[in-house]
Amino acid sequence: MDSLLRFLAESWHVFRQAAPFLLFGFFVAGLLKALAPADLLVRHFGGRGFVSVLKGALLGAPLPLCSCGVLPAAMGLRRQGAGAGATTAFMIATPETGVDSLAVTYALIDPLMTALRPISAVLTALVAGLAANLLPERSIPALQPVNGTEAAGCASGCCPRGGSDGCATTAPGVAECPAGRSRLADRLRDGLGHAFGEMLADVGLWLVLGVLAAGAIGAFLPPTLFVDLPGGEVTSMLAMLVIGVPMYVCASSSTPIAASLLLKGLSPGAALVFLLTGPATNATTITVMARTFGPALTGVYVASIVGCSLAFGLVANRIYAALGFDIHAVLGGVAEALPAWIELGSSALLAVLILRALFTSRHAHDACAEGVASH
Question: N or C terminus of the chain: which is more exposed, having fewer CB within 10 Å?
Answer without folding.
Answer: N
